[in-house]
Amino acid sequence: MSVSTTSSAAAGALLKQLQQVGQTHLLRYLDALSETEARTLISQISKIDFDLVKKAHAFAIKPPSLQDVQPLPDSCVITDYRKYELEWKTEGLSQVAAGRVAAIILAGGQGTRLGYNGPKGAYNAGFPSKKSIFQFQIERLIKVRALANEALATTSATLPLYVMTSDANDSETRDFFEKNSFFGMDPADVFFFEQGMIPAVTEAEGKVILESKSCVAMSPDGNGGLFAALERSGAIADMERRGVLYTHVFAVDNPLSCPGDPMFVGCCVAKSVEAGNLCVAKARWDERVGVAALRDGKFHVVEYSELTEEMAKKSSGKNLAFGAANICNHFFTTSFLRDKVIPGMKASHHAARKAIPCVDDPAPKASNGIKLELFIFDAFPLADSYLAMQVDRESYFAPIKNASGVDSPETARQMVTDLHGGWLLRAGAQLEGTGHCEVSPLVSLSGEGLDKIVNGLKLRLPLYLGADGPVNLEQFGTNDFRITVDFSTAQDGVNHYRVVAKKPNPDVSAAAKVIMEKLAAVDISKTTPLDALFLLSELKDLASNSNL
Ligand code: UD1
């Protein structure tokens, strides 16, 4: 044995523990390892909760039967949301303005299907702006906050962001935010936390798999690892300290996700539910999406990997009976998370059968074991009140899962082009040429306000309509806005337009208000000539600082 006395003492103690849980094979190659490798392996094994692994494996290989799962009755799904959109948006914005909402991005996944090695949120899917998915989502968050301020005539709206990472991408994710200056967010409002890791096991016996002689095959514990991670990391305590009552949780892989979605959050708050699920109509019976359902009268989601073909094809009139597709976009109250989910979520892991590289075969062709994953939506049955809302796919769901074909960067770019191009056309713009089209969330969150900017203008595709200030440019525009064409960035084949507001300009109006107030407060009869001079120069400074 090449290991030191200290390591062998540790190995001896560990071996005894492993005997009790039937996992001694993990130390099988110890004699062949260097001192450093042995230490790393011993430390890795010591951190594994074998009791949890045993329970997780037992649950995963014998999941509850789907016999008592029923389609969600139509009456349980809100589909006429357009009717109440304004009311719920207003409610949602007022909650954001009061600082009661937090956004959580689920960004711990590995992006294996996409074939991208880095954090999925850092992925540039080839949109005209070349933005990463994180940037899309965070600019939307910033816009929601701005709309909340505007709606409630305040400047104090807050919408903190909690980013769940995993061991595999935590430091890269943090670096990416740093490098991009947090995409305009105050770093104090961004909280990173890591989800847990769990070993892969053999299906039959639940033996933990060795990836190599010195390393256990570990992977993130599924997006349902969120709940334990919120507690472990102090994120839930941070939310409570900030007075956050509602959380909006969503997948990183959908560039249309809108953090703090005012309409959805507003609806859940108005209806006083503990949990809410945003769905879209399932596109085909075999689309790889979970579906909303009922089990024992409780709200439930059945994952695509577990739904039987018979259930998937079952129809209800012209529609699929299990037709409300889960898009991994959820609402939870903070008290529901704290009081029911964190203490109540069991080791209810699901089995993901995978070809797992292991010591005997570094590149297996077929499935040789299971990864154990908790699913976030398994929190739903713990809720006493919930709602499901089915929204338009076109406005809400452009997932990027695969490198090509269905749910790929190309389909997402096309969906955004159709959506944003539609907004521009409805706002009165003419679009010339062909190619993709993208409007920055900082200009418009969901098409609002574009008529004031582009009505009657000719814009050339492919195009990106951004909000960043002017460069050296040709200018044209409407009464309220100037649009500039940025020739310096046009070489990449995309026409970059920048929107610059002429009015309303909140800084200008705020300064004008201060000046008006100052003037109104002046009692001419009591003002000495010297006071008048001081006042005049103060007003001039105010006016010139704010371009009045
Ligand atoms: C998920 C949903 C599925 C839904 C589909 C829609 C779950 C369990 N499944 O499936 O019902 O129809 O999205 O696109 O929610 N993640 C982590 N840590 C993990 C695993 C995943 O943070 O350990 C994150 C991913 O980064 C991603 C999200 O969870 O943001 C969804 O995970 P992914 O594995 O991509 O789920 P799907 O299989 O697509």
List its salient traits.
single chain, 548 residues, alpha/beta, Spore Coat Polysaccharide Biosynthesis Protein SpsA, Chain A, 3 domains, 8-stranded mixed beta sheet, 5-stranded mixed beta sheet, 26 strands, globular, binds uridine-diphosphate-N-acetylglucosamine
Short description:
With 548 residues, the chain is α/β, with parallel strands linked by helices.
Structure, explained:
It is a single chain. The chain is of the alpha/beta class. The protein folds into three domains: 5-47; 69-407, Alpha-Beta Complex (Spore Coat Polysaccharide Biosynthesis Protein SpsA, Chain A); 416-545, no CATH class. 34% of the residues lie in helices and 21% in strands. The chain contains 16 helices and 26 strands. The strands form eight sheets. The protein has an eight-stranded mixed beta sheet, sandwiched between helices. A hairpin with a 2-residue loop joins strand 7 (210-212) and strand 8 (215-216). Helix 4 crosses helix 9 and helix 7 (226-233) crosses helix 11 (334-344). It is globular, with a radius of gyration of 27 Å. Bound molecules: uridine-diphosphate-N-acetylglucosamine. The site of uridine-diphosphate-N-acetylglucosamine (UD1) has 26 residues, from strand 16.
